[in-house]
Structures are given as structure tokens and as C-alpha cells.
Queue: 3 jobs
Job 1
Amino acid sequence: MAEIVELAPAIDVLSPDQQTSPIVLASPHAGNQYPADLIASSALSRTALRRSEDCYVDELFSAAPDLGAPLLRALFPRAYLDLNREAYELDQGMFRDTLPDFVNTTSPRVAAGLGTIARIVGNQKEIYARKLDWAEAESRIDRIYKPYHEMLQRLVNGTRDKFGYCILLDCHSMPSAGLPSNKSNASAGIDIVLGDRNGLSCAGAVTEETERIFGTLGYSVVRNNPYAGGFTTHHYGDPKNGIHALQIELNRALYVDETSLQRRPAFSRIKEDMRTFLQGLNRFSLNARQELLYRRLSAE
């Protein structure tokens, strides 16, 4: 059985002095603390492991606390534990012992090698050079996954209690390869994909305003193709109860060299654009409050 390593704190929250915005931001995939047990058990170098990392996304949205909104950040990488999955989506083939019956071993994400503990990184290379133990998975889930989602639930519920509704922005980046073409300009790429589970996780007005603001900033935006949202939008998004969850995917090539993972010169401008976007969405959300509110049933 592999040794269970001690971990530093798994998450942090960039909190405003006073929350004045109904927006909560989450960054589940930008963590870059690569623990020794991952490096030791992996067939890949740290550089190769970083191919699944949403590099610097938390930094791009770091203006959130200045604007009165909290930002929850995962500190460990997606290659170690994917927080945008069910807690127990695991591939039996990765483990030497039999997984408990409650584990979901048959989801499409597991089949693709992208369960809660991924089998592959973004370039389809196998992560592990050995079989894992169930105890390792359970330890990661207990010490990283559960604190992250307990904190996210607390932030979402607290925001809805304070404002009557909450807009949860799940912030990601995506590789530039394989994106759909830009219908209005075939020579240009897609900059941003918004995922609202085809309208199920978020009020249409929020998605529309997000698309409009990014459009005015010069970004090419599509909805739900190829990313309609993951576990976070599915689990938390509940528009009828005042929780509007929207996934934002930024084209990684806009701000980072996808080979070296070094920031591009445009990084500072894009970071300022994300501040402008958050300012605009916050103004909209406060003005659209009645449309976004939790609708308490009369029988309650």
C-alpha cells in the first residue's frame, strides 16, 4: 500500500472586506501545488502533468474581491484530483484493490480517462506508472474534494441568503485545438465558451448579458459547444431557487503559450478585461434582482 502523504491546505478563498456582490467565483483547475506522491507515482514529468492545468485562471479573475465578490481557489492540480466531477467517479482499472460499490465506475468521464482521479492528462498521455490504492483516493477526496465543495456550498448559500440569489461563475480555460469555428469569421477562433447546461443551470438573462459584455470587449463567444458545463453547474445550478451557475471557458492561447505555459504579453490586458466583465455583470445582476430572486413557495 502506498504511503498517504500529508498535504498543505487544499483551498483558499480570496474574500472581500465586505461582500457587496451576489457573484461567487470558483476556480477548480488552476491549482499548481504538485505533491510528491503524484510526481513519484507518475510516468510523466511535472511539465507534462501541467497540460491539464487551467494555468493562471485564478489570477485572471483575481479582481473579484476588490469588486465585493469572493473567489474560491483549489490549490492542488486537476491531475491530482478533479473537483469538477462527482466525488467518486473512479476507474477500477487504475486500482489494485476493489473499489466500494458506491463508486461510479461507469460514467462517460471515467470511460474517457477523466474521472475524479484522472487516468490521462490533456494530451491523452497516461498519468500513472503504477496502480493506486483505494485508500489514496479516499484520502485525496477527504482532504481536498470535500473541503472545496463544503466551502463552495457555504459561499453559494450565504450569498443567496444575503441577496436573495447567487450567480456562481465556474472559471476555466480550454485548449485552443478542437474548438468550433467562428461562424461570423471563419479565419478567427473562438475565445470564450459559456456553459449553462443548455439553459438549465442559469437564467437566460445572465448568460445573455455575459455574452454581450464579452462581445463588447472584442471576444468571440459561443454557448455550450463543446463545453456545456460540468459537475459544478449541474450540482449547484438551480435557477428556480435563485442559484444561477455559469461555466466560463477561456481559450488558453489568448493569454499563455500552450507549450511553455508562459504568460503572453496580452495577459495583463485580458486580466483587466475580466475585471471589466465582472463590474458589468455585477451592475446587471443588481438591476435584474427581481428576475433572479429565489422564488419562495407560498406553502413554505
Job 2
Amino acid sequence: MGLTLINYLSVKSGNSIQFISTLLKTVALLLLIFGILFSGHGNARNFVDPAPGFHFNALALVTGFMAATTGAFASYDGWNNLNMVAGEMKDPRRNITRSLLLGLFVCIIVYFLITLSYMYMLPIGEMAQSSFVASDAIQRALGSGAAISVAVLIVICTFGAVSVNLLTNARVIFSMARGGNFFPWAGVVHPKFQTPGNAVIILGVWSSLLVLSGSFDILTDMFIFMSWLFYLLVVLAVMVMRKKMPDAPRPYKVKGYPWIPLIFAAFTLFYLISTVYYDVTNYNAGKSPVINSVFGLILTLTGVPFFPYFRRKYGKKVKG
């Protein structure tokens, strides 16, 4: 709730906190990477040795890989958040593209190195059985006293993730209200602080309720699955709009259109289908209390009846 208050009072303060938390997170990760890789306690054979008892099964390998990508997608998610604050940026046409590419490149390098360091320290079979890979790897490399660094890193990462989502996703609620798709008071700019204050409060309260409602792992799986479902819908919507509105201004160009969006859509569809299959399999085997992806879909669909209601009630009162 403290971050909600900060984003309510000042856009600059929210942005500054996000910059500092990102910097601290990156520095902490780099220290862990070099601490593990240069500890001298790892084994390069871990990069090539398979897990004990491994037997190749194409379907199990593919579904397992796609299930593992959920965690990776959770780490990378946020790449799209910059677009939500485009209206508050200087020269968004230029800076959004540069920021997205630079941020994604940095994430790829840092996440590749941290994964490499974990693999260097822990055999694949041991890693598969570990509930806290980072903690186990760091403890083996630097001793039990270093385990506290993982807790600090988790706090920093969580703090940064909460901060950026409050900063950016509140703009989605704000935009919905301004477009006649939500309560009009959610689209009001605070007269003194010049922030979408009401939208920030709504997001902060709703996020707190979700956190208190259940398992963090379940929430994460639902969030990633639904995020990628909407990424698919957005890409398809862009292609449909380009077909219906061929002469509309195009401030952002897509290199390799339409093949790049089609490849993205095909991969995303495959990921969604394989995730549902994996979740159903885990549920039937008693490994999961709910089918996370299906539950997330049902929860999201509960909002469908509200769309025509808001459009009918507030659609004609859209603010300019």
C-alpha cells in the first residue's frame, strides 16, 4: 500500500523508485553470478550431463519445456509495460522502441548468465529436485551465510515488480474509464498531483486482495497464462485493424510484417494449448489443487458481462 500511495502522489517518484529498484536488482544479480561462477566449487560437466534415469519422450519433453517457460515468461514479463505510459513520455515513437530493445537485451544477458551459474553449481538431477535453486546454488558456492543474499534479492525483485505494475497498469484502468469502458471516476486526473490517482487506488486494493486470496504460485501461473492469451489477441487485433484500416497512420513499423507477428501468434497458441494440457495432467495426477490456466480463464471471463454494461452506460460520455 506504500507504493500505491507513492504512485498516487507523484509520477516522478514512482518512476524514480522503479529506476533504483531495477538498478539494485541488476547489480545484485551480477554479484551473485560472478560469485558463483568464480567460486571454484562448480563443475562444467553439469552443462552436458543428463539427469539420472532420463529417458527421451518427445511429448513429455515438449510439455515439460513449455511448462518451464512459464517461470521464464514471468521473469521477462513487463517488457510491454512501457507502452502503457507512452502518453507520459517524451518522443514515445523513438524512445519506446529503444527502451524495449535495450531492456530486453539486458534481461537476456543477465538471465542467461544467472541460469548458467546455477547449472555450473548444481547437477540437472539435483536442480530438478530443488525447491529453491538459487538458494541451494549460492549456499554451495559461497557458504550458508550467503543464503541471506537470496532473501534480499527476492525482496528487491518483488518490490520492483510491484512498483512497475502499479505505475503502468493503473494507466490501463485509467484508459478504460476514459474510453467509456469503466466507471468515469476512475479516469480522473488528480488536480494537484497530476496522476491517475483513482485508478492507482483501484489497482492497489485489487492487487492486495488477490495476494491475500491464495497461493502465490497459482496467481503467477494464472497471470502468465492470461497475459500471453491477451498478447495473442493483441497481435491478431493489429493484423485485423491493418486489414480494415490500410490508410491509417502507422507511427510504429513492424519489421518482417506479417511473418513476424504470425510466428509470434503460432508460438503463443502452442504455448497456451500445451500449458492447458500440462495443467490438466497435473490436476488429474493430484499435483495441483486447481487447473491454474482454466481457473484464470474463468476468472477473466467473469468480466465479460460488464463490458456491454459499461459501454451502454458510459460509452456516450467519453471524455476528449
Job 3
Amino acid sequence: MSDADVHINFNAPAILRKAPSMNKERISSATAYTVVEGTLDECIRQFTSKPISQHHLYDIHTTAQGEMITEVMSAKQISELVRLRDFL
């Protein structure tokens, strides 16, 4: 599949969540909390507005869309999507 074949619905419902942290590391036993609930686009914009040093504490929950968009997107996946977005 080429980039031209990839279609992502940036208007899909999504939730940006942040994991509680201690010493800049996730607390694995703690429940992540909602930062913003809106569209995938809104969640991506909010994610990119956060300090890069804290990106690893965030993930986006949305409806899966093929291989690129999974139900829970890690900071690494979100950053890759941001990088590729201009080409999609």
C-alpha cells in the first residue's frame, strides 16, 4: 500500500490521556486521566503542544483505522503520524 492509498479520518472521535508520573516516569499502577476528548485532529494538536520531554506520558485512544491508527496510539506512533501527516 502506498501513501496515496492511506486515508485517515482525523475527525474520528478520540481521547488524549496522560499517565500519572513520578520523576518523569509513568506510574504503572496508576490510571491515566483524560486531557481532552474530541477528534483525532484535536487530540494530536493538544499532544504536540505538550513539552517533548513529557510526550512519553501521553497516548491517544480512538477507533482503529488500518495498520497506522490503532485503538491506543503511543507517543511514538503519534509522533510518526505527525511527521507523515503532510504527506497523507
